[in-house]
Amino acid sequence: MAAGRLPPAALTLKQFLRRQQVLQLYRKILRAIREVPAEQDRRYLRDWAREEFKRNKDATEEVRIRNPPL
Predict the structure, then answer these.
(1) Cβ distance 42 to 36 under 8 Å?
(2) Are 44 and 38 in contact, with CB atoms under 8 Å apart?
(3) What is the pLDDT of residue 52?
(4) For position 18, what pLDDT does the model report?
(5) Three-state SS string across the chain, please?
(6) Cα distance between residue 6 and residue 47, in whole Å
(7) Radius of gyration of the chain (CA)
(8) Are 56 and 68 in contact (CB under 8 A)?
(9) Long-range contacts made by residues 64-70, C-beta under 8 angstroms, separation at least 24?
(10) What is the pLDDT along the chain (70 residues), one digit of tens a residue?
(11) Angle at CA 31, nearest 5°, toward 21 and 47?
């Protein structure tokens, strides 16, 4: 690869920073879920968070990432 050329799948700086924010949010949610006293509730919330993040993993529109549909 020539110097200064990025592979086609490389993220822009803005995309990279947004990805870092999303990952940080996911980690915070999982940490907060650990504080829930009931195991069954923790399991439900953990599964819900995973599914929501998986469902939106291909989101690319800035507005959708910042304000996902409910």
Answers:
(1) yes
(2) no
(3) 93
(4) 87
(5) CCCCCCCCCCCCHHHHHHHHHHHHHHHHHHHHHHCCCCHHHHHHHHHHHHHHHHHCCCCCCHHHHHCCCC
(6) 36
(7) 16
(8) yes
(9) 65/18, 65/22
(10) 455 676 777 888 988 898 899 999 999 999 999 999 999 999 999 999 999 999 988 887 776 666 666 5
(11) 90
Residue 22, Cβ density class (10 Å: 0-12 exposed, 13-18 middle, ≥19 buried): middle
Distance CA 32, CA 37 (A): 11
- Which tokens in the block code for residue 38? 């009931």
> Residue 30 carries which side chain, given as an amino acid letter?
L
Handedness of CA 9, 13, 15, 18 (dihedral sign): positive
Both structure tokens of 26: 């996911």
